[in-house]
Amino acid sequence: MLKENLKVKLGSLKLRNPTILAAGILGLTGGSLRRVWRSEAGAVTTKSVGIKPREGYPGPRIVETSGGLLNAMGLPNPGIKNIVDEIKIAKKAGATVIGSIFGNKKEEFTHLAQKIEKAGADAIELNLSCPHAETLTTIGHDPELTREITEVVEKIETPIWVKLPGNTHLSNLTQVAKAAEVSGAESLVLSNTFPGMAIDIKTRRPILGHETGGLSGPAIKPIGLRLVYEISQSVEIPIIGAGGIRKSEDAIEYILAGASAVEVGTGIMQEGLGIFQDICRGITSFLEGREMKEIIGLAHQT
């Protein structure tokens, strides 16, 4: 059993511990969401879903690099009608489920959010920042667009999280974060993957089918830490750190920087589903009887 002092509160949502499955392939079915939940994740996030089914980009879609993984999936998903059933399966297992959605305009986000809410999701994550999907490369960089979308979706009762890009100037990211906050977002996720590419020197061509993709893994952790450290000083709502988390020490760094919880994605591919328990055990040892809230943002103290 995990310790009671690992419980965290993200706005109005309480989690049993600060680890969250990031949106991705393991969030495609109710069965996989349930499996991750039973591996002691504090919450599980669905794969980002749109209005209609989408095939995504042609392969290759994933390539391993020295610093992590490059992916250019193109947001493949089964569409909102199908993911609703998967959320219900995960909820029957008692999971805390976050529904991740994307759209091209605010009306789409509203429709998707309403469907996710009816399915019983505990929170909704607005994916405004995929670095290789045309529309989302702009929304999360624009404070006004972020405000408009968050504001209209926030009218539903389910808590709203906003996932922001990291590949923008800090001053702009601060404006976007504040826009999401004043528009009703309960938490921010920092950050999404970063644009990158890999080239095959034998064929002299980009390896990914889409040529460029999003970099995740250890290489982006120092960038993610800096963003959490800086943005946490500009907003009052909780921040969920993401990027390069493979072990408890990584998660603890994010928490000390100002994150209230962390999302884990690429690390699962490298460490397996035991990563959630391992991170929680490491945090418990680090706490030494203290509460989680006592170490959040501790790196800011002089």
UniProtKB/TrEMBL annotation:
Substrate binds at K47, N71, A72, M73, G74, L75, N127, N192, T193. Keywords: Cytoplasm, Flavoprotein, FMN, Oxidoreductase, Pyrimidine biosynthesis. Gene3D superfamilies: Aldolase class I. One of its GO terms (biological process) is 'de novo' pyrimidine nucleobase biosynthetic process. It comes from the Archaea. FMN binds at K47, S48, N127, K163, G217, G243, G244, G265, T266. This is Dihydroorotate dehydrogenase. It comes from candidate division MSBL1 archaeon SCGC-AAA261F19.
